[in-house]
Structures are given as structure tokens and as C-alpha cells.
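Subject: DNA topoisomerase VI subunit B transducer domain-containing protein structure
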Amino acid sequence: MMTKKKQPSSKGNSRSKSKSKTYEEQKLKFKSPAEFFAENQNIAGFDNPGKALYTTVRELVENSLDAAESIRTLPEVHLKITELSNKSFSQAQGLSVQDRVDKALYRGKKKGKKTKGDKNSDDESDDEHGEEANSKSQGSQKYFKLVCKDNGCGMKHERIPDMFGRVLAGSKYGVKQARGKFGLGAKMALIWSKKSTGLPIEIKSSHTNNPDESSDFITHCILDIDIHKNEPNIRVHEKVPNDEAWHGSEVAVTISGNWKTYKSRVLNYMELLAVITPYAHFTLEFICEDNPKKSFTMDYRRRSEQMCKLAKEVKHHPKSVDNLIVRQLLNMTKKKTLEQCLCSDLQGINKPLAKRLIDELEQLTDQNFDRDTLCSRIDTRTVQQLTAMLNDTNVFAPPDSRCLSPAGEYNLRLGIMKQFQPDLVATYTSKPGSYNGHPFVVEAAVAFGGAKGKPGLTIYRFANRIPLLFEPGNDIVNIAANRRVKWSSYKINHKTDKVGVFVSIVSTKIPFKGTGKEYIGDDVTEMAESVKTAISRCCLQLKSKLTARRLERDHAARARNLAKYVPDCSRALFGVLSAMKEGYEANGAKRRKVEDGVIDKVKTEMISKMSSGEVTQASISSKLIEAIEQADHAMALEQATKRGRGQASRCNVHLIPEFFSENGTPEQVLFKGLAAGSEARSETIFHPMMALKLMECCRVNT
């Protein structure tokens, strides 16, 4: 029986043709940088409303710090966060506050099935649950107005629209250390504001290059951003008189956020920022319009007046370039030949070295490269070979570290002492290192004890003087502190002792990992070794101090242990002396005359003092305690002398009594020391016993 083959249906063919036709007719679309970051907001730290609020705070505050440091003035940053009520937010949008009409649209879903007997009660409960869901949904969406004001350099009038309304437009690009991770600044906050509230950003700024001078006017600008065109939509751009002679910037933006879950993050960020920048004065003011009791103000006062040095922009290091950078340098250079370009646009290349590099490049290209070729006409193949040769060459000097601006041990120590008040702090700064042509410096501090400390290791991380609060697990500092440092060898128990580890890494290129750049990877060997070395050097400093403190505690414990036996010893000694006195008095006069010749004078005086009541159990106890204290003082002097040897330079000194105290006791005499062979130089010093007296007074006062 013959079977007929099924013919393909015309309907199927028409479908496939329509699909292919539709695919062919699809238009090629383009996205602006603003559109890209608006759709991928998690890359810039705007994962959710809470994280967006934290990131906006960080961007505004760091911009203020950069502006103040650029003109070498001590930063004054005031941050005001206002949790808006529904009425205030509606007024900001130009709307009137109205209640919801169709409440069924906002009512929560019913849970469970109804039973016949509970029909009426279920209806009532559903209404109650609907009202509750209605109130929760209205309260879950919170809006915040952030205002950040500083005393920095401000911004030029004509640049403000592009600086806030055009993504990837900024003045911080170049080979030098910078606080920003992406170069977005407040632009991403404006994009988040446009998505969540639809309100524009408001800027007031007075530009100056001299902190002692100010501009005659203040720029007032209100603008929005065109996401598709990546251009600012300017609503107000005017100049107003500067009657108060103020310089700086004030930025106000309204966004949606979650203060309840990210309050601790914001406070922790401000506290750590005060640690790494103790020369700045921060004020955080939070206002809750619905509940004024939740409002508060935090004042992070300035502790130091020594600012960090400014990072200088430098040229690219030959080992840090790639094909794109080399091509950019060749296109933008003012020199004609490649030899001249290498000498002028890259670090560490002089004419003899440039000539050697050109000779090597000619050999690599089989004499196809002409050294007289114009830079703009060098082909792609030659650029690739030149880049590979520069990356593989090992004759270049280390990268220039002037492009870095570390906090400094002085500021780091002051910041830690101010915010955490530990018992001991040790700091260390590594020598400038490099990886792939990028310089870096590691600063570390280890704090021990203190009332604010927590048992165990508490790690604080900084990158380019920015606190890192998220994703600490795989961070280079966390791995070094928990896995590579042997705490027991430094007399530190990292599980029970209160130990705070502070590590700040500054570089022209921080090797961040993760989408949001929240931690530093451990794959850079040079940087990982520097972090471990810095922490170990801090621990080595603490080791001697901890050993001395343990000795002092042992001495104090020894004195306490001896004092425990004083009552028993004094009672036993007094009992023996009393028995001697009774036996002496019980003998007759003739017997006592015989014994007087045998008993020595000391025993006779002791028995007489016993008879007169001068020697009692209380007097014996006081003498024993006094003997313990004198022994403790002598031991302390010996330890202090041992610690002093080798730590200070020695010279022969002739001591001349200068004057006595009111009591005139020898141990309180002050002396004038004259160095041997130098009669002109003299200084007043204390007698060692006087130093012990001062130490004792300090113990009592503290």
C-alpha cells in the first residue's frame, strides 16, 4: 500500500519567512552611557533603595573632601538627611496630598479559605487586613532629601551643567590617585533621583582657587538629565550675589531610600571616614518629619590640622600601557617621531633608552618599521609589538609615587585614637611598591584593647582613603589578617584579645573585584605581601609594649599576693614578740642582769618598745607593706633602666644641685645636667627617685 508523503504546509513556510523577515528588519539600537548605568545601576552601588541612599551619601561627601583638599583648606562638610513626610514630598512634586479612593487596589491577598460559619467574621478580618496592608504599603516607600555643603573650591559657572548632567564627564581622569571608583560622582545620584522621585538636582556653588578669596557671585543651578541623549536638562542656571563671601558647593537631591536598614552603614562610614581623614570636620544631621524624636545630630570634630599631600598627575609607566593607551598617546602627542614620543609621554625613558627600544622594535618587525615614521601613521601591528615590548622590558625605573596621597601614620594614629580610644596603637607605612606599572602604598595600624573594642579581630579596610564596608570575606586584608599573620608569635590572642586591624591601600589602580567594586582581590602577589608585612610590623611594635605591660601586671600581682600574707605575718610576729616580752618580764632581776649581758642591744630595744606600746600588730603590718612597696619601686626602676638602654643616646653628665623642694628630701632634688665637654648646653633633669615619685602620683591620679 502506497503512502503519500506529507507536503510542508504553506502556513509554516509563511511563519518562518515572517520570522526571518522580522529579524532582518530589526533596527540597530544604540544606548548612551546614562542609559547603560540607569539599567545596570547595581554596578555603581545602587542595588536597592537602602544601598542607593548609602552610595549617594558617599558620593556627595567624597566630592566635598576632594574640593576642599584641592585648595589646601581644612574640610568642613555638613550633611543633612531629611526623611520627608508624604505632605512634604507631594509639595516638592507640586501635587496635593490625597487619600486613596479605591482601597481594594492596595488590599493584600486573602489567606486561607472561608468557612460557612465564619463568613461575617472573615469579611471583617479581611477589611482589617486590607487597611493594615494599605498603611504598610504607604509607609514602606520613604523619600529623603540630602543636602551636602562644604567649604571647597566650588565649580565654575559654565561647567556645572556638564559636571552633573553628563555621565562620564569629569575632571579627575588621569594617572593619579582618586577617591572615585567609576568617575560618576553625583551623576548616578541624579539618575536614581530621576527614576525614583522624578525631582531635579539643585546646586549652589562659588568658585575660587584661593581659600582666602571668594567669588563675587554664587551659581544657582537646577537641572535634570536626559537619559537617552546623556545631556543635561537645565531648568535654572543663574548668578546671584555672594554677600557672605562664601566659597564652596551645596548640592541637594531627593531620592527614595531605606534608612531603617542602612542607618548603621551610614554611621559606620562617617566614623571610618573621620579615622582616615582626621583633619576634616564632619557634621551629620538627620531629621525625621513624621517623628521628630528620631532626629539626631552627629559631630565628628577635627583632630589634626596636617593635611595629606596632594597627588600629582604623572605620565604613564611603560609597563602599565596597553594597545589603546599607546594608540591614544600616538594620536595625541605633539612630537613627530616615536623616539621623541617615548621620551616625552612615558615615565623613565631617556634618549639612549628610547634609541635602544626603537632598535629592538626594528628587529621585531623585520626592518619593516621606519624610525622616521610619523606617530599618527604607525600601523596597528607595530602598536601591538611596541606594547608587548614595553610590558616585557625590565630596565625601567619604578613608577613615580608622587601620584599617590596616603593618609600618613600621624593622621592614621590620631584618627584611631579619636574614634576608638584603644589602649595601644602601632602604625606602619610600607615603601612604594608597584604591580604592572601601577604604584601603591600600604598603611597599616593595629589597635589593642580599649572600651570600644570587641573581643577578637575587627578589620577595617580603606582603598584610596575610602572606607570599604561590604563583601569583606575575600578581601586581601581579611585574608592576610586571618590566615597569614601568626598572632601568637607576637603575644596576641586574636580570638580573645580586643584587636583592631586598620589597612589603607592607595594606588593609581586599585585591583577591585566584584560587580560593585566592594573589595580588593588577593591575586596581586606584591600587594598581598605588602599587606602582610605591614600588619606584622605593627604587631612587632606591640609585642615589646605588651611584654612590658605583662611584666608590670606580674609585679602588681606579686605585690598583691605578698600583701595577702601581711595580716598573718604581722599577727605571728607580734605573737612571738609578745611571748619574748612576757618571758623577759617573768624572770627575776638577778636573772635579767645575767641576760642583759647575753641579749643584744636590738632585742633589748625591741622589748622596750613592746612595753611602751610603740610596736603593735598594726605598726608591723604598715612596715611590711612599706617594704613591699619599696621592693616594687626598685624593681620598676630596674625595668625602666633596662628599657631605656639602647633606646636613647648616652652622654656623660655632671649633676649640680639646683634647688630643693619645701620638704628638702634628697629624692625630690632637681639637678642641672651639664654634658661633658659642652659647658654651653645644659638642661634640668630629675633624680631617678624623683621620677619614681612622679610615677606613683600618676598612678594615684589615674
